[in-house]
Amino acid sequence: MPSIVRVASTVVLDDAGDILAVRNRRPWGQDAWGLPGGTCETGETMEEGARRETLEETGLDVKVGRVLSVSERIGHEHHLFIIFAATVRGGILAVRDDDEDVVEAVFLPLARAEELMPRYHRPLAALARRSGVGYRGEHRPTRRR
Question: H/E element holding 55?
Answer without folding.
Answer: helix 46-58
